[in-house]
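Supplementary material to the annual report.
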Amino acid sequence: MAAKAVRRLLSEYRELINNETEGIYAGPVSEDNFMLWECLIAGPPDTPFEGGMFSATLKFPDDYPLSPPELKFTCEILHPNVYPDGTVCISILHPPGDDPNMYESASERWSPIQSVEKVLLSVMSMLAEPNDESGANVDASKMFREDRAQYESIVRRCARKSVGL
Amino acid sequence: MTGSIGIPQLILCAIVAVLFYRYVLSPSQTSGSPGLTSGRRPRAAVSPNDIESVRVMFPQISVAAIRWDLERNGSSVSATTEKILNDGFLPEPPASAVRQTPSPLPSSVNGQPRPLGGTGASQAPAPSPSSSAATTVGYSDLVTRYSLHSRLETYRPGTSMVQLSSSPKKNDKASLFIRGRERRDLMILEARKKMEAMLRR
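Predicted assembly:
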Protein backbone atom coordinates (compact mmCIF):
# COMPACT_ATOMS: atom_id res chain seq x y z
CA MET A 1 0.00 0.00 0.00
CA ALA A 2 2.55 2.49 1.16
CA ALA A 3 5.48 0.60 -0.29
CA LYS A 4 6.48 3.50 -2.52
CA ALA A 5 6.43 5.87 0.42
CA VAL A 6 8.55 3.54 2.53
CA ARG A 7 11.11 3.16 -0.25
CA ARG A 8 11.38 6.89 -0.65
CA LEU A 9 11.62 7.44 3.12
CA LEU A 10 14.34 4.82 3.47
CA SER A 11 16.41 6.59 0.84
CA GLU A 12 15.84 9.97 2.48
CA TYR A 13 16.87 8.49 5.82
CA ARG A 14 20.04 7.02 4.35
CA GLU A 15 20.87 10.39 2.82
CA LEU A 16 20.27 12.23 6.10
CA ILE A 17 22.48 9.86 8.07
CA ASN A 18 25.31 9.74 5.54
CA ASN A 19 25.39 13.46 4.80
CA GLU A 20 24.75 15.11 8.09
CA THR A 21 23.20 18.53 7.94
CA GLU A 22 24.22 20.86 10.73
CA GLY A 23 21.52 21.32 13.33
CA ILE A 24 18.94 18.81 12.20
CA TYR A 25 18.23 15.14 12.87
CA ALA A 26 15.36 13.03 11.62
CA GLY A 27 14.65 9.32 11.61
CA PRO A 28 11.89 6.76 12.06
CA VAL A 29 10.71 6.29 15.61
CA SER A 30 10.87 2.52 15.33
CA GLU A 31 12.32 0.05 12.83
CA ASP A 32 8.93 -1.31 11.90
CA ASN A 33 7.12 1.93 11.15
CA PHE A 34 8.67 4.18 8.57
CA MET A 35 5.65 6.45 8.40
CA LEU A 36 6.32 8.17 11.73
CA TRP A 37 9.59 9.98 12.36
CA GLU A 38 11.04 11.92 15.22
CA CYS A 39 13.21 14.91 14.52
CA LEU A 40 15.38 17.49 16.22
CA ILE A 41 15.85 21.06 15.11
CA ALA A 42 18.54 23.21 16.69
CA GLY A 43 17.50 26.73 17.64
CA PRO A 44 19.05 29.11 15.09
CA PRO A 45 21.97 31.22 16.35
CA ASP A 46 21.39 34.90 17.15
CA THR A 47 17.75 34.28 17.95
CA PRO A 48 16.10 33.65 21.33
CA PHE A 49 15.83 29.99 20.24
CA GLU A 50 19.64 29.70 20.22
CA GLY A 51 21.02 26.79 22.21
CA GLY A 52 17.69 24.97 22.34
CA MET A 53 17.06 21.62 20.69
CA PHE A 54 13.45 21.34 19.59
CA SER A 55 11.87 17.95 19.03
CA ALA A 56 9.00 17.15 16.70
CA THR A 57 7.28 14.25 15.02
CA LEU A 58 6.79 13.92 11.29
CA LYS A 59 3.77 11.93 10.18
CA PHE A 60 3.85 10.79 6.57
CA PRO A 61 0.73 10.02 4.54
CA ASP A 62 0.51 6.75 2.60
CA ASP A 63 0.87 8.63 -0.68
CA TYR A 64 4.07 10.44 0.36
CA PRO A 65 5.80 12.17 -1.45
CA LEU A 66 2.69 13.23 -3.38
CA SER A 67 1.21 14.66 -0.19
CA PRO A 68 3.27 16.47 2.44
CA PRO A 69 4.00 15.15 5.92
CA GLU A 70 2.58 16.73 9.04
CA LEU A 71 5.05 18.24 11.46
CA LYS A 72 4.22 18.61 15.12
CA PHE A 73 6.47 19.85 17.88
CA THR A 74 6.74 17.56 20.90
CA CYS A 75 8.27 20.14 23.20
CA GLU A 76 7.29 23.37 24.78
CA ILE A 77 7.49 26.11 22.17
CA LEU A 78 6.08 29.56 21.55
CA HIS A 79 5.91 30.73 17.96
CA PRO A 80 3.37 32.61 15.84
CA ASN A 81 3.35 29.85 13.20
CA VAL A 82 2.94 26.91 15.56
CA TYR A 83 -0.55 25.94 16.66
CA PRO A 84 -1.13 25.46 20.39
CA ASP A 85 -1.11 21.67 19.85
CA GLY A 86 2.38 21.89 18.32
CA THR A 87 1.40 21.54 14.65
CA VAL A 88 3.58 23.67 12.39
CA CYS A 89 1.97 25.91 9.79
CA ILE A 90 4.36 26.83 6.97
CA SER A 91 3.98 26.91 3.22
CA ILE A 92 6.28 23.99 2.46
CA LEU A 93 3.90 21.71 4.37
CA HIS A 94 0.90 22.79 2.30
CA PRO A 95 0.16 21.10 -1.04
CA PRO A 96 -0.17 23.47 -4.01
CA GLY A 97 -3.73 24.47 -4.62
CA ASP A 98 -4.55 24.20 -0.96
CA ASP A 99 -3.67 27.65 0.30
CA PRO A 100 -5.54 28.42 3.48
CA ASN A 101 -3.84 31.76 3.87
CA MET A 102 -3.96 33.03 0.27
CA TYR A 103 -0.49 34.47 0.26
CA GLU A 104 1.84 31.58 -0.51
CA SER A 105 3.31 31.21 -3.95
CA ALA A 106 3.12 27.75 -5.50
CA SER A 107 6.88 27.38 -5.59
CA GLU A 108 7.12 27.63 -1.81
CA ARG A 109 4.63 24.86 -1.26
CA TRP A 110 4.90 21.11 -1.01
CA SER A 111 5.81 19.06 -4.05
CA PRO A 112 7.51 15.67 -4.41
CA ILE A 113 10.84 17.36 -5.06
CA GLN A 114 10.82 18.69 -1.50
CA SER A 115 12.22 16.48 1.23
CA VAL A 116 12.41 15.94 4.96
CA GLU A 117 15.69 17.83 5.01
CA LYS A 118 14.19 20.85 3.23
CA VAL A 119 11.18 20.81 5.53
CA LEU A 120 13.38 20.87 8.62
CA LEU A 121 15.57 23.63 7.22
CA SER A 122 12.43 25.64 6.44
CA VAL A 123 11.26 25.14 10.01
CA MET A 124 14.62 26.32 11.26
CA SER A 125 14.34 29.53 9.27
CA MET A 126 10.74 29.86 10.38
CA LEU A 127 12.00 29.86 13.97
CA ALA A 128 14.39 32.67 13.12
CA GLU A 129 11.85 34.70 11.16
CA PRO A 130 8.24 34.24 12.21
CA ASN A 131 5.64 35.11 9.64
CA ASP A 132 3.00 36.99 11.55
CA GLU A 133 0.59 37.01 8.62
CA SER A 134 -0.16 33.38 9.39
CA GLY A 135 -1.65 33.45 12.83
CA ALA A 136 -1.51 29.77 13.77
CA ASN A 137 -1.06 30.88 17.36
CA VAL A 138 -2.90 34.17 17.78
CA ASP A 139 -1.59 34.82 21.27
CA ALA A 140 1.99 34.26 20.15
CA SER A 141 1.52 36.51 17.09
CA LYS A 142 0.15 39.26 19.26
CA MET A 143 2.95 38.94 21.78
CA PHE A 144 5.54 38.85 18.99
CA ARG A 145 4.18 42.12 17.57
CA GLU A 146 3.38 43.99 20.74
CA ASP A 147 5.62 42.70 23.49
CA ARG A 148 8.79 41.38 21.90
CA ALA A 149 10.68 41.32 25.18
CA GLN A 150 8.20 38.96 26.81
CA TYR A 151 8.05 36.79 23.69
CA GLU A 152 11.83 36.44 23.68
CA SER A 153 12.05 35.67 27.35
CA ILE A 154 9.45 32.88 27.05
CA VAL A 155 11.22 31.50 23.98
CA ARG A 156 14.55 31.52 25.84
CA ARG A 157 12.94 29.61 28.69
CA CYS A 158 11.60 27.02 26.22
CA ALA A 159 15.09 26.67 24.74
CA ARG A 160 16.62 26.05 28.17
CA LYS A 161 13.92 23.57 29.10
CA SER A 162 14.35 21.63 25.87
CA VAL A 163 17.80 20.48 27.01
CA GLY A 164 16.81 20.07 30.65
CA LEU A 165 18.18 23.32 32.11
CA MET B 1 -48.97 -36.16 30.71
CA THR B 2 -46.06 -38.52 30.57
CA GLY B 3 -43.16 -37.17 28.53
CA SER B 4 -44.23 -33.56 28.72
CA ILE B 5 -41.10 -32.80 30.73
CA GLY B 6 -38.29 -34.83 29.24
CA ILE B 7 -34.54 -34.48 28.96
CA PRO B 8 -34.64 -31.95 26.06
CA GLN B 9 -36.92 -29.65 28.02
CA LEU B 10 -34.64 -29.82 31.04
CA ILE B 11 -31.64 -28.94 28.91
CA LEU B 12 -33.53 -26.05 27.38
CA CYS B 13 -34.47 -24.78 30.83
CA ALA B 14 -30.86 -25.03 31.93
CA ILE B 15 -29.66 -23.03 28.91
CA VAL B 16 -32.28 -20.36 29.46
CA ALA B 17 -31.33 -20.15 33.11
CA VAL B 18 -27.65 -19.79 32.30
CA LEU B 19 -28.30 -17.11 29.69
CA PHE B 20 -30.64 -15.30 32.06
CA TYR B 21 -28.02 -15.34 34.78
CA ARG B 22 -25.25 -14.27 32.47
CA TYR B 23 -26.90 -11.35 30.70
CA VAL B 24 -29.57 -10.14 33.08
CA LEU B 25 -28.39 -10.75 36.61
CA SER B 26 -24.74 -9.89 36.14
CA PRO B 27 -24.48 -7.31 33.42
CA SER B 28 -21.47 -5.68 35.00
CA GLN B 29 -19.19 -8.51 33.96
CA THR B 30 -20.17 -8.55 30.34
CA SER B 31 -20.93 -5.01 29.43
CA GLY B 32 -17.42 -3.58 29.78
CA SER B 33 -15.08 -3.77 26.83
CA PRO B 34 -12.42 -5.79 28.69
CA GLY B 35 -14.89 -8.65 28.92
CA LEU B 36 -15.62 -8.54 25.24
CA THR B 37 -12.01 -8.52 24.14
CA SER B 38 -10.78 -11.03 26.65
CA GLY B 39 -11.47 -13.82 24.15
CA ARG B 40 -8.41 -12.85 22.11
CA ARG B 41 -6.32 -11.53 24.94
CA PRO B 42 -2.99 -10.80 23.25
CA ARG B 43 -1.68 -9.70 26.63
CA ALA B 44 1.69 -11.41 26.67
CA ALA B 45 2.51 -10.07 23.21
CA VAL B 46 3.31 -6.48 24.24
CA SER B 47 7.07 -6.09 24.26
CA PRO B 48 8.86 -3.50 26.38
CA ASN B 49 10.41 -2.18 23.17
CA ASP B 50 7.01 -1.30 21.74
CA ILE B 51 6.05 0.46 24.94
CA GLU B 52 9.34 2.28 25.00
CA SER B 53 9.05 3.45 21.41
CA VAL B 54 5.69 5.05 22.18
CA ARG B 55 6.86 6.47 25.49
CA VAL B 56 9.89 8.10 23.95
CA MET B 57 7.63 10.14 21.68
CA PHE B 58 4.99 10.90 24.26
CA PRO B 59 6.64 11.04 27.65
CA GLN B 60 3.55 12.66 29.12
CA ILE B 61 1.55 9.44 28.60
CA SER B 62 1.82 6.88 31.39
CA VAL B 63 3.41 3.52 30.70
CA ALA B 64 0.28 1.77 31.97
CA ALA B 65 -1.93 3.58 29.48
CA ILE B 66 0.44 2.77 26.61
CA ARG B 67 0.61 -0.89 27.57
CA TRP B 68 -3.13 -1.14 27.89
CA ASP B 69 -3.70 0.38 24.48
CA LEU B 70 -1.09 -1.88 22.85
CA GLU B 71 -2.66 -4.92 24.47
CA ARG B 72 -5.98 -4.05 22.99
CA ASN B 73 -4.83 -3.30 19.45
CA GLY B 74 -2.51 -6.30 19.10
CA SER B 75 0.78 -4.43 19.76
CA SER B 76 0.44 -1.95 16.94
CA VAL B 77 2.76 0.92 17.81
CA SER B 78 1.51 2.92 14.85
CA ALA B 79 -2.14 2.56 15.86
CA THR B 80 -1.32 3.73 19.37
CA THR B 81 0.74 6.73 18.23
CA GLU B 82 -1.98 7.60 15.73
CA LYS B 83 -4.49 7.59 18.53
CA ILE B 84 -2.35 9.84 20.76
CA LEU B 85 -1.72 12.26 17.91
CA ASN B 86 -5.43 12.46 17.14
CA ASP B 87 -6.80 12.58 20.68
CA GLY B 88 -3.89 14.20 22.50
CA PHE B 89 -3.96 11.55 25.22
CA LEU B 90 -4.60 7.89 25.97
CA PRO B 91 -7.28 6.73 28.37
CA GLU B 92 -5.91 5.29 31.60
CA PRO B 93 -6.48 1.57 32.03
CA PRO B 94 -9.04 0.43 34.59
CA ALA B 95 -7.59 -0.60 37.95
CA SER B 96 -8.09 -4.29 37.15
CA ALA B 97 -5.85 -4.06 34.09
CA VAL B 98 -3.07 -2.28 35.96
CA ARG B 99 -2.93 -4.85 38.70
CA GLN B 100 -2.25 -7.74 36.36
CA THR B 101 0.68 -6.21 34.54
CA PRO B 102 4.03 -5.87 36.28
CA SER B 103 6.08 -3.12 34.71
CA PRO B 104 9.38 -4.25 33.18
CA LEU B 105 10.63 -0.73 32.47
CA PRO B 106 13.09 0.66 35.01
CA SER B 107 12.05 4.16 34.06
CA SER B 108 11.14 6.84 36.52
CA VAL B 109 7.79 7.22 34.81
CA ASN B 110 6.78 3.83 36.18
CA GLY B 111 7.03 4.87 39.73
CA GLN B 112 4.40 7.52 39.39
CA PRO B 113 1.09 6.28 38.09
CA ARG B 114 -1.13 9.08 36.94
CA PRO B 115 -3.68 9.93 39.62
CA LEU B 116 -6.94 8.31 38.64
CA GLY B 117 -9.90 10.61 38.50
CA GLY B 118 -7.67 13.66 38.25
CA THR B 119 -8.55 16.56 36.04
CA GLY B 120 -8.49 15.74 32.35
CA ALA B 121 -6.07 18.59 31.84
CA SER B 122 -3.13 16.59 33.07
CA GLN B 123 -3.63 13.99 30.33
CA ALA B 124 -3.86 16.34 27.39
CA PRO B 125 -0.60 17.90 26.24
CA ALA B 126 -2.42 20.85 24.68
CA PRO B 127 -2.92 23.72 27.08
CA SER B 128 -6.14 25.60 27.41
CA PRO B 129 -6.54 28.22 24.71
CA SER B 130 -6.78 30.95 27.32
CA SER B 131 -3.14 30.60 28.30
CA SER B 132 -0.90 32.88 26.31
CA ALA B 133 2.24 31.06 27.38
CA ALA B 134 4.20 28.55 25.37
CA THR B 135 2.39 25.83 23.53
CA THR B 136 2.45 22.09 24.14
CA VAL B 137 3.21 22.26 27.83
CA GLY B 138 3.87 19.00 29.66
CA TYR B 139 6.69 17.46 27.65
CA SER B 140 9.86 16.30 29.33
CA ASP B 141 13.22 17.61 28.22
CA LEU B 142 15.31 15.64 25.73
CA VAL B 143 17.97 14.52 28.21
CA THR B 144 15.25 12.90 30.31
CA ARG B 145 13.28 11.59 27.35
CA TYR B 146 16.21 9.68 25.91
CA SER B 147 17.74 8.77 29.31
CA LEU B 148 20.98 10.63 28.67
CA HIS B 149 21.74 11.73 32.22
CA SER B 150 24.40 9.07 32.70
CA ARG B 151 26.17 10.02 29.47
CA LEU B 152 26.06 13.70 30.32
CA GLU B 153 28.85 13.37 32.87
CA THR B 154 31.24 11.52 30.61
CA TYR B 155 30.41 13.37 27.42
CA ARG B 156 33.12 15.66 26.09
CA PRO B 157 32.35 17.53 22.89
CA GLY B 158 33.99 15.86 19.93
CA THR B 159 35.14 12.65 21.58
CA SER B 160 32.30 10.34 20.64
CA MET B 161 32.10 11.74 17.13
CA VAL B 162 35.53 10.26 16.40
CA GLN B 163 34.41 6.76 17.35
CA LEU B 164 31.30 7.20 15.29
CA SER B 165 33.01 8.19 12.08
CA SER B 166 35.67 5.49 12.35
CA SER B 167 33.06 2.75 12.35
CA PRO B 168 32.46 1.37 8.87
CA LYS B 169 29.62 3.09 7.05
CA LYS B 170 27.16 0.34 6.42
CA ASN B 171 23.90 1.19 4.80
CA ASP B 172 21.68 -1.69 5.85
CA LYS B 173 18.65 -0.69 7.85
CA ALA B 174 19.95 -1.88 11.21
CA SER B 175 23.23 0.04 11.02
CA LEU B 176 21.42 3.13 9.78
CA PHE B 177 19.28 3.01 12.89
CA ILE B 178 22.25 2.56 15.19
CA ARG B 179 24.07 5.49 13.60
CA GLY B 180 20.94 7.61 13.46
CA ARG B 181 20.14 7.16 17.14
CA GLU B 182 23.74 7.82 18.12
CA ARG B 183 23.68 11.04 16.13
CA ARG B 184 20.44 12.04 17.81
CA ASP B 185 21.87 11.44 21.29
CA LEU B 186 25.09 13.28 20.50
CA MET B 187 23.20 16.27 19.15
CA ILE B 188 21.25 16.48 22.39
CA LEU B 189 24.35 16.12 24.56
CA GLU B 190 26.18 18.76 22.57
CA ALA B 191 23.25 21.18 22.70
CA ARG B 192 23.06 20.68 26.45
CA LYS B 193 26.77 21.44 26.89
CA LYS B 194 26.48 24.54 24.73
CA MET B 195 23.50 25.75 26.70
CA GLU B 196 25.37 25.19 29.97
CA ALA B 197 28.21 27.32 28.58
CA MET B 198 25.80 30.00 27.37
CA LEU B 199 24.18 30.24 30.80
CA ARG B 200 27.57 30.55 32.51
CA ARG B 201 28.37 33.60 30.38
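DSSP finds eleven helices and no strands in chain B.
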